[in-house]
């Protein structure tokens, strides 16, 4: 197992599986925005060389492209329903997810979880007040490759006068994760073109 | 014709656990399991299992509304976007039950049996599955319902059937909640 760094923001581990003909990889976020508590990307690609799998990873991490309208609509609808459920019902946790298939049978999935955490104040630990945390998991499953992304962030206080989920922050986290995994898909699709 | 169920009981020093499976054709797609961290005598355990299976009490209106909102969104997403699967999972504290929480998870998906949808093969089916649980400090009860609810190729699910699956699971679990 080799250890690489990429723009000093991510730590990447690559492992070749010669029997399967894949390179497995794991990327962990290091220098993340303050509200993001965890970020990871993992999967495998049918690559011979490490540079090839690095291109797949870069496509997912850099995420400059926009998603097509119907995929944006799916993501937007999941996010809107999650927020509506949070506002309407006194839920402790709500999660929602969907899997879309393209015409060839490749799958794109998104799963969002919003959970209320109680404070963890005790004598030995630093006291963190009750809070809302969001976890976004997105995946692209092709015929010979898999890319799974996970981002976790604190998105609001759950006690006191300002207790509420920061809807804009949550939306940004959801959209970014969805766009990143869509980019991994778009890159793989473009590579597959003759 | 009465629906039939098979129950398995497992007792240990620390807990009494049960598992109930519905027998086809009338009770197919139903199962429940749970445990209580105390010794229950036969009569009490029988009453508990009967409550889970028969689900005599109606859950509070806000739980039903929450389930309805999830089902409505799932159906909307399926019809608009032709999804392969959809899932939603809610957990909440139950107001009128002492120290208990409930969760309801529901999913709607295209059942992939290998060759459905191919030339000459039957069309793929849409399946709704719901899992509800109620848990207190020293007990946990889960109920599962599952049913074929439509034709995946036309992307249309029977709304009433999906709602029935979700509400039935909710009702079984709610009736197992500690009183």
Layout of helices and strands, plus pairs?
The complex is a heterodimer of chains A (194) and B (179).
Chain A: E1 2-6, E2 10-17, E3 22-29, E4 36-45, H1 50-62, H2 69-88, E5 91-101, E6 107-117, E7 131-141, E8 146-157, H3 167-192
Antiparallel strand pairs in A: 1-2, 2-3, 3-4, 4-8, 5-6, 6-7, 7-8
Chain B: E1 4-11, E2 16-23, E3 30-36, H1 42-54, H2 61-81, E4 85-93, E5 101-110, E6 125-135, E7 139-151, E8 156-157, H3 159-176
Antiparallel strand pairs in B: 1-2, 2-3, 3-7, 4-5, 5-6, 6-7, 7-8
Helix pairs in contact in B: 1-3, 2-3
Structure, described:
The complex is a heterodimer of chains A (194) and B (179). Chain A has 194 residues and is of the alpha+beta class. The two termini of chain A are 33 Å apart. Chain A has helices at residues 50-62, 69-88, 167-192; strands spanning 2-6, 10-17, 22-29, 36-45, 91-101, 107-117, 131-141, 146-157. Mean pLDDT of chain A is 87; it is low at 4-8. Chain A is globular, with a radius of gyration of 18 Å. With 179 residues, chain B is of the alpha+beta class. Helix content of chain B is 29%, strand content 38%. The longest helix of chain B is centred in the middle third of the chain and has 21 residues, at 61-81. The mean pLDDT of chain B is 87. The chains are: A alpha+beta (194), B alpha+beta (179). Chains A and B meet through helix 2, strand 5 and strand 6 of A and helix 2 and strand 4 of B. Strand 5 of chain A pairs antiparallel with strand 4 of chain B.
């Amino acid at each position: 197992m080799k250890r690489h760094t990429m723009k000093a923001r991510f730590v990447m581990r690559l492992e070749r599986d010669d029997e399967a003909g894949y390179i497995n990889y794991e990327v962990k976020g290091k220098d993340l925005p303050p509200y993001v508590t965890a970020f990871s990307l993992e999967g495998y690609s049918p690559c011979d060389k490490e540079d090839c799998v690095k291109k797949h990873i870069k496509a997912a991490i850099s995420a400059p492209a926009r998603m097509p309208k119907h995929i944006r609509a799916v993501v937007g609808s999941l996010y809107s329903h999650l927020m509506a459920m949070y506002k309407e019902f006194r839920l402790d946790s709500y999660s929602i997810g969907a899997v879309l298939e393209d015409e060839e049978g490749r799958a794109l999935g998104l799963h969002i979880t919003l959970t209320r955490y109680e404070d963890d104040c005790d004598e030995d630990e630093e006291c963190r007040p009750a809070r809302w945390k969001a976890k976004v998991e997105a995946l692209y499953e092709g015929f010979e490759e898999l890319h799974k992304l996970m981002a976790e962030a604190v998105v609001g206080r759950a006690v006191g006068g300002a207790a509420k989920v920061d809807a804009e922050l949550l939306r940004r986290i959801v959209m970014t994760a969805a766009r990143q995994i869509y980019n991994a898909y778009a890159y793989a699709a473009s590579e597959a073109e003759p | 014709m009465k629906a039939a169920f098979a129950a398995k009981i497992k007792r240990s020093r620390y807990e009494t656990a049960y598992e109930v499976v519905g027998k086809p054709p009338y009770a197919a797609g139903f199962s429940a399991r749970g445990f209580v961290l105390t010794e229950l005598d036969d009569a009490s355990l029988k009453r508990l299992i009967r409550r889970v299976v028969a689900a005599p009490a109606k859950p509070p209106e806000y739980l039903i509304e929450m389930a309805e909102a999830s089902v409505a969104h799932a159906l909307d997403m399926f019809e608009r976007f032709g999804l392969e699967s959809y899932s939603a999972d809610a957990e909440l504290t139950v107001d009128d039950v002492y120290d208990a929480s409930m969760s309801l998870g529901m999913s709607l998906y295209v059942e992939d049996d290998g060759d459905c949808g191919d030339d000459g093969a039957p069309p793929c089916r849409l399946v709704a599955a719901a899992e509800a649980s109620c848990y207190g400090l020293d007990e946990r009860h889960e109920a599962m319902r599952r049913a074929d609810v439509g034709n995946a190729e036309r992307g249309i699910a029977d709304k009433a059937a999906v709602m029935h699956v979700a509400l039935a699971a909710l009702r079984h679990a709610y009736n197992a909640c500690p009183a």
